Write the C-alpha cells for this entry.
Amino acid sequence: MSPAIEAFIDNVNRYCEWHESDSHEIEAARQILLALMQGIPALDTTRLDTSCSTEYEFRGHERWKDDHKRLADLPIQYYRAVFYPLQFENEESVVGDLHDDLADIYGDLWHGLQGYNAGDIGYAIDHWRTSYDQHWGHHAAAAMFAIDAYYRS
C-alpha cells in the first residue's frame, strides 16, 4: 500500500476518533478535514480488488442523530450556503448545519473503516473515494467554508 493511502487511512482513523470523543475542538476538525480532502487524489483503486463478500453496516438515521448531537460543544452550528456554487441562475442560499456536515462525513468514513478493518482494503478505498465524490466531499467543503468563516469573524 502506498504511503499516501496509509496517510489517508490514518486521517480516517483520526477523524473517527475525534468525532467519537467527548470533546470537539473545531481546529482539530479543520486540520483533519484538510488532510482528508488533500488525500483524496491518492485513492486510486485501479490495482485493487474492490469487491467484497460482506455487506458492511451503515450508521442509519438513529445513529446519525446521536452522531449529530455529539457535536453540541462546537462553537458554531448553522451557516449560510449554496448547494451548487457554479450555478449562477436561480441559486438561493440555504441554511447549512455544521453538525450535519460532520456527522455525514463520519458516517461515510466509518462505513469504509468497517471494510478496511475486516481486510477489504480495496472496498474501503473505493467507498471513501466514491462517497467523497457523491456525498461527503460536499459536506467537507461546506464545513471548511463555515469553519474558515468562523475563524475570520
